[in-house]
Amino acid sequence: MTSDDSMRSRVPGSRFRLWLLLGANRWAVAGMVLAVIFVALAVFVAIDPVPLSDAIAASDPTETLFQAMITSIITGVTLVVTINQVVLSQELGAVGDQRDRMQAALAFRDDVADDLDEPVSPPEPSAFLHALLGATADRARALREDVADVDDQEARDAVESFADELIENAETVREGLDSAQFGTFDVVQAALGFNYSLKIYEGKRIQGLYGGGTDAGSDEDGDDATPPLDEDATAALDDVVTHLERFGPAREHVKTLYFQWSLTDLSQAMLYSAIPALVVTIAGLLVLGNAGTIGGTTLGVANQSWLVITATTVALAPFAILLSFVLRIATVAKRTLAMGPFVLRTTDRPDDD
Predict the structure, then answer these.
(1) Closest CA to 143 of 160, 120, 119, 131
(2) Where in the chain does DSSP place strands (E)?
(3) Least confident window among 210-214, 255-259, 297-301
(4) Is residue 114 part of a domain?
(5) Is residue 128 part of a domain?
(6) Is the alpha carbon torsion for 314, 316, 318, 323 positive or negative?
(7) C-alpha to C-alpha distance for 262 and 329, rounded to whole angstroms
(8) Of 257, 347, 255, residue with least CA distance to 10
(9) Which of 28, 36, 206, 331 sits 20 to 30 Å CA-CA off 200?
């Protein structure tokens, strides 16, 4: 059974929802959130039968609003920056710990370099994943050639279908990695398109059924039987599965680096946006709390109301930025919770027929 490996097929909802959660620029998403807030507040103020100036004269709701905003901005920014520092604290450690991390990273890169038949693996994350996928696709092509002479039609069809799907998925993702630059979401977004978890499961299933596993290793009488795949084809299949298993930790490492990068950007954005938000909120508390401070109307709404709406929208900018970044981080984390042949979603598997 052919499976759709695209990210679009693995994330429920519309294309717009997927674009909003992952593809859209985070600043654009924050701007959209603020625009919706501004329009919604303008509509509520316009349809309110009691003018805002009268409400201010009676109970002064703007004072209560802006006082709460000041407290929320300071508390929220402090909390987010603190959480960010806790997440990034894993970068801190004794020299021994840092050396162990370095040795583990170098050992993995050496293993990949051996797989690539190169003296050293590419240093850039996008080039590293690109080369690893290329090597995996090459092994899948070799596997397809090795099973061409297999007599068992069922085994040959299963392996060829597996190899074809893997090659197609790998080449599609490599195209997305060609122009991807780390620091943006492009590298992680492209890497998410490679459905390696299901590919590992399919590869190991074929190993068990046709490559000398327990399912194919004995006949109906319990006697040893010759597996459908010969030694060369079995070795080629093992090689493909090994390369797929390399991709898992490589993608997780790139994803972790992106999360750290993104959280750092989020902390900076929250700090930068908190300053104008606090200034506008404090000014609103001092100036806009008096009825009739600013006269005149625009589009049928008092200018003082427009200023209150604008000040409220600016005060919510840190929250909108936090929302836009967390939406992407949480979506990526949810889609990549499990490593290896664990598929945490409803999917069509080859043995579901």
Answers:
(1) 160
(2) 297-298, 301-302
(3) 210-214
(4) no
(5) yes
(6) negative
(7) 8
(8) 347
(9) 331
Name the one residue in this structure whose structure tokens are 């090795």.
146
Query: How far from each other are the two terminal CA atoms of the chain, in whole angstroms?
Result: 8
**How far apart are the C-alpha atoms of 115 and 320, rounded to whole Å?**
45
Structural contact between residues 205 and 350, judged by C-beta atoms closer than 8 angstroms: yes
**Two tokens, residue 222:** 């319990």
Return the number of other C-beta atoms located less than 10 Å from residue 248's C-beta.
17
H/E element holding 302? strand 301-302
Asked if 26 contacts 328 with a C-beta cutoff of 8 angstroms, the reply is yes
How many independent structural domains does the chain possess? 1
Q: How many angstroms separate the CA atoms of 259 and 276, rounded? A: 26
Q: Are 240 and 141 in contact (CB under 8 A)?
A: no
Q: At 76, which amino acid appears? A: G
94: CB partners within 8 A, 6+ apart: none
- Which residues, including other chains, have CB under 8 Å from residue 153's CB and lie 6 or more apart? none
Q: Which residues contact 292 (CB under 8 A, 6 or more apart)?
A: 53, 57, 304
Range of the domain at 136: 7-92+124-352
What are the structure tokens assigned to 28, written together?
């654009």
Residue 104 lies in a domain: no
Instruction: For tokens 């294309």, name the residue.
Output: 15
Q: What is the distance of C-alpha 95 from the center of its chain?
A: 31
Q: Which amino acid is at 159?
A: V
- Provide the pLDDT confidence category of residue 216 given band limits of 50, 70 and 90: very low
Query: Is position 259 within any domain?
Result: yes
